[in-house]
Design goal:
Chain B: It holds the Pfam family E1_dh. Chain B: This is Dehydrogenase E1 component. Chain B: Keywords: Oxidoreductase, Thiamine pyrophosphate. Chain B: Its cofactor is thiamine diphosphate. Chain B: GO terms for molecular function: pyruvate dehydrogenase (acetyl-transferring) activity. The complex is a heterodimer of chains A (334) and B (341). Chain A is an alpha/beta fold and 334 residues long. Helices cover 37% and strands 21% of the residues of chain A. Chain A folds into two domains: 184 residues, Thiamin diphosphate (ThDP)-binding fold, Pyr/PP domains (Rossmann fold); 129 residues, Rossmann fold. Chain A has twelve helices and 14 strands. A seven-stranded mixed sheet of chain A has the order 3-2-4-5-7-6-12, with helices on both faces. In chain A, helix 3 runs parallel beside helix 4. The radius of gyration of chain A is 20 Å and the shape is globular. Chain B has 341 residues and is of the alpha/beta class. Chain B has one domain: Rossmann fold. Chain B is built from twelve helices and eight strands. In chain B, strands 2-1-3-4-8-7 form a six-stranded parallel sheet, with helices on both faces. Chain B has a two-stranded antiparallel sheet with strand order 5-6. The termini of chain B are far apart. Classes of the chains: A alpha/beta (334), B alpha/beta (341). At the A-B interface, helix 3, helix 4 and helix 5 of A face helix 5, helix 6 and helix 12 of B.
């Protein structure tokens, strides 16, 4: 039986387990990945299976952890470094952006860095401003890095497996709010090709582009919109780099309307980049401005009431969609 | 002659070749043929040959931005090095890296680095690979006294000691981090004690005495290979400015004159003669051969061709995967008649 129901967390664990079984060069290194089993339980039990030489509990030295992974990758291992929270990426940005991402290029193609940086981000646990961010735009801005953000259980497995076959550094950003989400894992069948978006719901009136947890808010919004007679094409971007935008442009040229939805603070976000690309490539087909819907440009506050307000909701996406497609203004319209 | 007798002479030859190479790098710059002025000469630091000679084939290393001498010590081809410093296609990195990012997988050079301390954790990662594969290799980080004040060094030392990795940290203390003398950037200068505090075997050696450096390094490399990581500090003096444009106005001329008397190449030469391991004719011949070799490297670099423009899009990602799209292609896709509705 290759397809079964499981959680996002278990799918990632299964991917690590299967990958480590298939490739003895794969090691895990990070804080609490061994005895503790991972801060969110993703690596539970792996140290018992593969031992302390392959599942390495590191001291609290994030730059060192990533730097060691870079060196191990340069010399023949395939490390999976874990950064407990993407918020800590400020500590490791030199090793990630100046070392991992640039080595192949600077050294004229001689030395690649086939490593994976697993981390997680996003809101939902009242973890406050330093444990709740969505910093994927920082990674997207660095040539040489790959970046994927799984939204589904099946992608949580397959994107990580594929990341572990890539010759270059790949950052995998999971969402802390998705770990307990259930879904079907089919270990033989990925949701789509590496680097290709996936249409999660087909529609003709508006294209909604999203990824990670906001995909689910977008799908919920699409359900609301359907009740109002608006059919949304909901596209899961999944792989932010490499990203083949052909499917995005095809959809927008069909619907004439696009909304890009992200949890990240909007200014300088991935949504801004996607919106710019659509504006350039689909100008003649657009009926309306490309809408970006993102997190407010504020640090994430701890109060659950404020935290929920800081990021887009299905309601906001649906309201904006109705306004965009049917000119039906929401209650908060001026 | 026995191995014991020829080895010091070989080390002298390598030191002289480094000195000659660095002098030609200066000339390359003056001729306007270098790629930029970010050229950091290692003149005065040639005793590092004592460490590179203690490593064996298969061992790997990273260097800081002042790493020409280390690479020559590990067997680099000076012509390809000079071509890289000139930004030419024939260079080690096809003109993509230059002086500060030179590397060569074949010789175990995992990369020179222009971020102070940036390459240090990579040797710990290499050590992890060698430990896991039981390969018997050692990895060495070469860096300056500037990196002694970087946090990544101490994270690296701690992990190396914690996991008993086959690695060696080599600090070439030339007394200056750019324009700041080491006693203006550290409260306590006994750096090897810092290494020992983490559980490494630490040593500080006179940087005018390549044979002393070699003796200590040999023991430390052997220890590292057996799982006891080490630290060696070479006490040297940076003869010239930080980079080619820097005339070091921040240094006292007297200090500079005294510092340049601490010349590891001149010292090694004199000791070989005194020990009877070489006569003046032998040494003069070695010097002349080095000069001729490096003259040729300089000319090779000057004559070599620039990389083709299209190569700038190569090796951002691995061959066989999509590379970034040139801007003009994108603009054409947006603006050409056929692209509009």
């Amino acid at each position: 039986m290759s397809a079964f129901e499981t959680t996002y967390r278990e799918a990632i664990r299964q991917a690590l387990l299967d990958a480590m079984q298939a490739d003895p060069d794969i090691i895990l290194i990070g804080e609490e990945v061994g005895l503790y089993g991972g801060a969110y339980g993703v690596t539970k039990g792996l140290i018992e299976l593969y031992g302390a030489e392959r599942v390495i509990d590191a001291p609290i030295s994030e730059p060192g952890i990533v730097g060691v992974a870079v060196g191990a990758a340069m010399t023949g291992l395939r490390p999976v470094a874990e950064l407990m929270y993407v918020d800590f990426v400020g500590l490791v940005m030199d090793q990630l952006a100046n070392q991992a991402a640039k080595s192949r290029y600077m050294f004229g193609g001689q030395i690649g860095v086939p490593m994976v940086l697993r981390t997680q981000g996003g809101t939902g646990r009242s973890a406050a401003a330093q444990h709740s961010q969505s910093l994927e735009a920082w990674m997207l801005h660095v040539p040489g890095l790959r970046l994927v953000m799984p939204a589904t259980v099946n992608d949580a497995y397959h994107l990580l497996r594929e990341a572990l076959r890539q010759p270059d550094p790949v950052v995998v950003i999971e969402h802390k709010g998705l770990y307990t989400m259930k879904g079907v894992l089919d270990v033989d069948t990925p949701d789509g090709e590496w680097g290709q978006p996936v249409i999660r719901r087909a529609g003709t009136d508006v294209t909604i582009l999203s990824y990670s947890r906001m995909l689910h808010e977008s799908l919920a919004a699409a359900e609301v919109l359907a009740g109002q007679g608006v059919q949304a094409d909901v596209i899961d971007l999944r792989c932010l780099n490499p990203l083949d935008d052909t499917m995005i442009f095809e959809s927008v040229r069909r619907t004439g309307r696009a909304m890009v939805v992200t949890e990240a603070a909007l200014t300088g976000s991935v949504a801004s980049e996607i919106a710019a690309r659509i504006g350039e490539a689909c100008f003649d087909w657009l009926e309306e401005p490309v809408l970006r819907i993102g997190g407010e440009d504020i640090p994430i506050p701890v109060s659950p009431a404020l935290e929920r307000g800081a990021i887009p909701s299905a309601a906001l996406i649906a309201e904006a969609g109705l306004w965009l497609v049917k000119r039906e203004a929401p209650a908060w319209a001026p | 002659m026995t191995q014991t007798n020829t080895a010091p002479l070989a080390r002298y030859r390598t030191m002289r070749r480094i000195r000659s190479f660095e002098e030609r790098v200066g000339e390359l710059f003056l001729r306007g043929a270098s790629a930029g002025s970010m050229l950091h000469l290692s003149i005065g630091e040639e005793a590092v040959v004592g460490v590179t000679a203690a490593m064996t084939e298969g061992d790997s290393f990273t260097t800081h931005h002042r790493g020409h001498g280390v690479f020559i010590g590990r067997g680099a081809d000076p012509a390809r090095m000079m071509a890289e410093i000139a930004g030419k296609e024939a260079g080690y990195c096809r003109g993509k890296g230059g002086s500060m990012h030179i590397a060569d997988r074949a010789l175990g050079h995992l990369g020179a680095n222009a971020i102070v301390g940036g390459g240090i954790p990579h040797i710990v990662g290499a050590g992890l690979t060698y430990r896991n594969l039981r390969s018997g290799q050692v990895s060495v980080a070469f860096f300056g006294d500037g990196a002694m004040q970087q946090g990544i060094l101490y994270e690296s030392m701690n992990m190396a000691a914690l996991w008993h990795l086959p690695v060696l940290f080599c600090c070439i203390n030339n007394q200056y981090g750019m324009g700041t003398r080491v006693d203006r950037s550290a409260g306590k200068l006994a750096f090897s004690e810092r290494a020992e505090a983490f559980g490494l075997t630490g040593a500080r050696v006179d940087g005018t005495n390549v044979e002393a450096v070699h003796q200590v390094a040999t023991a430390l490399v052997a220890g590292a290979r057996a799982g006891q990581p080490g630290y060696i500090e070479i006490d040297a003096y940076r003869f010239y400015g930080h980079a080619r444009m820097d005339k070091s106005p921040y240094r006292d001329p007297e200090e500079e004159a005294e510092g340049r008397l601490r010349d590891p190449v001149v010292t090694a030469r004199a000791r070989l003669a005194v020990a009877g391991l070489a006569d003046e004719a032998d040494l003069a011949r070695i010097d002349a051969e080095a000069a001729t070799e490096m003259d040729a490297a300089l000319e090779y670099a000057v004559e070599a061709v620039a990389p083709p423009l299209a190569s700038m899009f190569e090796d951002v990602y691995a061959p066989g995967t999509a590379q970034p799209r040139p801007q003009r292609d994108r603009l054409a896709a947006i603006l050409s008649e056929g692209s509009r509705a």
